[in-house]
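okkk here we go again. third time trying to get the pyridoxal-5'-phosphate bound version out, last two times i messed up the smiles copy paste (missing a bracket lol). double checked this time i swear
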Amino acid sequence: MSSPRIEVDLEKVRKNTRTLARRLNVQGMTVTAVSKAVCGDPMIAQAMIDGGAAGLAEARLSNVRRLRAAGLTCAITLIRTPLLSQAAEVVRLCDASYNTESVIIAALAAAALGEDRVHDIILMVEMGDLREGVMPEDLSALAQRVMDMPGVALKGIGANFACLSGVAPNASQMRALSALANDTEALCGPFLQTVSGGNSASLPWAFGKTARGRINDLRVGEAILLGVDPVSGDQIGGLYRDAFALFAEVIETDEKPTRSQPCLIETGYAKPRLVSNIAPETRVILAMGLQDTDIHRLSMPAGYTLVGATSDHLVISTARAAPRVGSELKFHMNYSALMRAAAAPDGDIVAHIRRPPSDNTRDPSAPRHLAMV
Ligand SMILES: *Cc1c(COP(=O)(O)O)cnc(C)c1O
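finally!!
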């Protein structure tokens, strides 16, 4: 077994997607599931699709390659602007991409023409996060350029929030994005099929009472995987927070002095003397380190405290009996710990496929099919 090892309960990923998709579908919005935090793991991506995601979104072409190699044929959108050097492969592997640069869109168009395809373009607009996006006043000119290029089609617009700034979108930013969709249509002509209103940080807005306007899609990763709102860190009602866990193997247990430095004591009578400060506590060393995950974003198992970590060792302490060498301890990860663990060289993801026979794929609202016997 590798250490550390990520375990995922695919059923919880599927149910989280289903819960979000149902809540957003009734509001006229789809969920595009973002698989980048788990490096495009095909089983997890499939669980998202099975849960009702309208398609997948990925930031890196390497993850898209992995999804396609595993046989996933669903719509995949590249949500990070394509690299100019990868334009031809983007057109071959992705149905659509988010874009901000006309030189890159022109390369996509040329590649698509060569392959006798049409690649869909969603233009990213800057709405306050100050990461990617064209300024709202420049949107219609860029949209017009896309319209004029054969090989690409203008599919929609989108915005991103709360990534660089950490600030959740408010109703007025969402209204502004909606208005931009209407303005772009009025100026450039085509109906915009997709108006994508951001990531997991937009869910509180989506569940709120303000009008949805033209926004009809959200790109959701963290909330599906970890069940939380990324801005507040709070659990989203009805979602599982424990679809993922990180296991690491114990490689040493010992009682060690709490401080390695001897300490000076004042006796009151004689001269001060040096004694070793030995307050017994069990130190546990695990085969996991800074190279494997964001150690400071892990929750320690109950009864353990973090002492420190180096590239390959994690030291924790406990007042309890020592765990056995060779046994494993379980850690809960936040988003940053999960994405680093999934990308680490030893970060194997092991899936639990827990489908009780009575619950098979049965969804009470799904149409039932009759089988010929
Ligand atoms: C990562 C990313 C998302 C998904 O963000 P979550 O917070 O995981 O939901 C959506 N859109 C873009 C552009 C992203 O880069």
